[in-house]
Design a protein that fits this description.
Elements lengths: L1 H42 L6 E8 L2 E8 L28 E4 L3 E3 L2 E3 L2 E8 L5 E6 L15 E7 L2 E16 L4 E19 L1
Antiparallel strand pairs: 1-2, 2-3, 3-6, 4-5, 4-10, 6-7, 7-8, 9-10
Amino acid sequence: MKNILLVLMMILSVLSCKEETKQVKKNNHENHITNSINEETSKKKVLSPHTSAMAMIGDAHIHIDYSSPGVRNRIIFGGLVGYDQVWQAGAHMATWIETNKDLIIKGETLPKGKYGFFTIPSKGDWTVMINKNWEQHGKDEYDEKEDVIRFKITPKLSEEITEHLEYKINKIDDKNGTISMAWEKVKIEFPFTIN
C-alpha cells in the first residue's frame, strides 16, 4: 500500500511539474508579445508632442500649454495653416495661456485667469486673440464674441527654420516680459506688463 501511495505521489509530482513548465512557457510567450507591442509603441514618435512654457516675472506666474507640431518638410503658413483663417496656434487641443496676475497687453487688461490663445495668420499682419474659451478641440468652438483681447502684430521672418512650434515667455525685468511663438520661418512676439 505504501508503495502504491509513493508511486501515485511521484506521478502527481511529475504531472504538476509539467503543468508548471507549460504555464511558465505560456507566461513567457505572453510577456514577449506584450514587450514587443510596448517596444513598437515606444518606437513610434509622437508627431505633435504636448509641451508647455512657463516663467515667473516678479510674482506673476505665466504658463502656456500647447501641442508642438513639426514642419516635416511641409509649407506651414499659407499651406498646412491657411492664411486669413482662425488657427488654434498649436495642434490638437487649443493652446491656452494662464496667469495668476493681471497683464497689460497692447494697452488692454487681461485679467488673471486661463484663456485660449488663437491667431489668424496672414501674408501681412497677423491677428492674435486671447479668448475666454480655453478648453476646446482645435478651433471648433472658437467664438469671436468671447475674445478678451484682440490685436494685430507684424510677424518676423527668418531664413532659419524652427522645426517644432515653440512658445517662450521672456523676462525683461520684474514687471515686463514678452511672449513669443516661432514655427517654420515665422516668429511673432509681443510685450506685456504685470498690472
